[in-house]
Amino acid sequence: MHKRGHLLGIRNTCFLFLSVMLIAGLALSGCAEKNTPEGVVKEFIKAWEEGDWKTYKACIAPEKRNLSKIEEELARQKFEQIKVKFEGMKFKVVHSDEHKNKAVVHLMDGKIKYTAVIMGEKKTEVQDISKMPKNARPFFDTVRVKGKWYVYTDL
Length: 155
Description:
- There is one protein chain.
- This protein has 155 residues and is of the alpha+beta class.
- It folds into 2 domains: 1-34; 37-151, Roll (Nuclear Transport Factor 2, Chain: A).
- Helix content is 43%, strand content 32%.
- It has helices at residues 2-34, 37-50, 53-58, 69-81, and strands spanning 83-95, 102-118, 121-128, 139-145, 148-151.
- A hairpin with a 2-residue loop joins strand 2 (102-118) and strand 3 (121-128).
């Protein structure tokens, strides 16, 4: 009986250790995925959909965030006025051959729904990416600065 209890303790300890390692591995891989061109674009899109200005702004390359207070306020107001919803997005990442710290994330499929109040009237437009010519589909330039990927766009 003493040996059986000891074996159960070892088995439970091994199970606990493997569980912790699996969870840690998943957590680390989740963080690592965000630090890719596609990962930062997904985070940028999510922040845009949720109206999370702080995260949206943090996804943009540092040099593109250097605005005066008035410029930033205008950018924030524009951000708040246009609501977006991305559905069924499929991405294609193309890394630059010339610059290892640059990549373009192309939207290949899905729909983008834009909603804004224009002259007091709520207007909605939907873009079906799959129906657009390939050279007219939306894309996001990305850049890696000090090891971290950002969307390279104006605020």
